[in-house]
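SAMPLE LOG
Freezer: B-3
Tube label: C17
Construct: single chain, 602 aa
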Amino acid sequence: MRLIQWISSSLQTKLLTMFIILTCIPLISVGLISYQKSFKTVFNNSKAAAMLSADQLARDLDTQFIDTRKLLEISKNTQVLRFLFSQEDTYEDTKQILRTMDSYRQTYQYDSVLNITMVNLYGRGISERKGLFQLEKNPLRNLHLTYLTKNPDEVLIVPPSEASTLDRIDGFQYSNSNVISIMAAVKQQITHEVIGFIVIDVDDKVVTQFCDNVTIGQSGFYFVVDSSGTPIFKPSTLKATVKLPPPSDLSHILNGTDTNYIDSSEGKPKFVYVAPSLMTGWSIVGYVPLQEIVEEANSIRQLIIITVVLSFVFAVSLHFFISNRLIHPLHLLKSKMQLAASGYLEAKVVPKGNDEVALLGKSFNIMLSKIRKLLEQSIKEQEEIKKAELRALQAQINPHFLYNTLDSIVWMAEAGKNSQVIQLVQSLSKLFRISLSKGRDWIIINKEIEHVHSYLVIQQMRYRDILDYEIEIDARLNPYPILKMILQPIVENALYHGLKNKRRKGMIRIIGLIENEEDIVLLVEDDGIGMSPEKLEQMREYLTNDQPPEQTGNEVSGGFGLHNVQQRIKLYYGNKYGVSIDSIQNEGTKVTIRIPMTGGNM
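STRUCTURE (predicted):
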């Protein structure tokens, strides 16, 4: 209770409490997420680097034995085959075989090869170390040679634990070295029958030096196991107290798809991973304490914790520094003023109390109210000004057209074309009756179509050789209201700037339809001369500009009429609606008028 009372005692205490809560949660969350991400990344990178080293060791081991296996080519030598196949030999044959062995040694520089031995099925053999010899026992009693007899195409690599003195073919004993034996069958070239065997003894230092010289972290190491998981080679400096993973634990990664696992069976967790040697059938096993793998990740964790704590301390200190100098109501008033400055005039302050800040808030609200009224009054005045300007622009169209039509009536009357004079006067009468419309700005679409039809009748009589027209209006549109004099300026542009310059007969098509049951779309199409891409871009700029284009001749007058229609539509319907234009040079122009369906029957 006392804690709650203390928190509620002052505004500063409340802010401090909220600030601590709102600061701690994000900082702790960011810290945890950062640690998890960094731990996972660093652990994966460290694991990948360690496994890459093991793969490199396995490849180096394979390369060593691939080079050594080149000595097996000796078994294809003609004198060697004759020696193994026959039971008789001469001193010269023996010397020649030994010279061949020495030639291979000098060619490939095999420092790790201790001895090369060849023996036939009857125990008669020759080796570098012992020369000619005859075994006292059947060589096929050796399990490895028996296996090669049944599988003559395979090459065996026998580790020291299996290549013991008892199984040594020539009986030679190495006093200072452990031996890895490479065994292969020798086949007769024609019948491919096994006639003997070749054995290459390699110093096991080619493997043990990998285990002794390469380490992982501070205390990790590599060792080599056979296909069953039994250790073959271990570091010579490995303490006897260090227990290696049992073969049963290694078998699931030697025979499965996984290449690593974490051993938690004894003491601290160990990271164990395997890289197979394809040439030998053995595997390189890395064994390192997990703590050494994630050591860098732990350093990052400590850095993150320190960063989070320092950020929290800095944030709290900053809060005290600011809160001691600022008052919350002033901050609130400032934010409201910023909203008002950005154009949001509904940003009212709710003053509390009767102090200077509360009075300042009330004055601010009164000021916004007066600004809104002034803006509304200014907007209304500007709209009226625009309406007056647009009406004046609309009135400028009529005299020019009237003069041309009256001239046509005069010359038709002089030519005695009475019926055409009557038709022309009737169309002109309808045209101006609809244009006036008792001073109203709105008429129904049916009347707007009748108005433009009267205009086209008059113009067709004047330009009979160049003008045809079609009007296709959805009957559902007839009762809907529309601003008057919307279509006539567009049709006039199509005639004067499209067909008239074509110098042959063209077509003006007026189409009215309903789109998405929401909008009325009126299309005015012509097949006149169209516009170049530059002129089309200029016309589109006129439609988007608030200011009308300057009247500098016929080239711009079309943009002037379109701009007039565009401004009227946007003024009455909003910026969503208006006029758009598309044109292809020498093919024609299409003007699209889009207005909303605001209801039928005025």
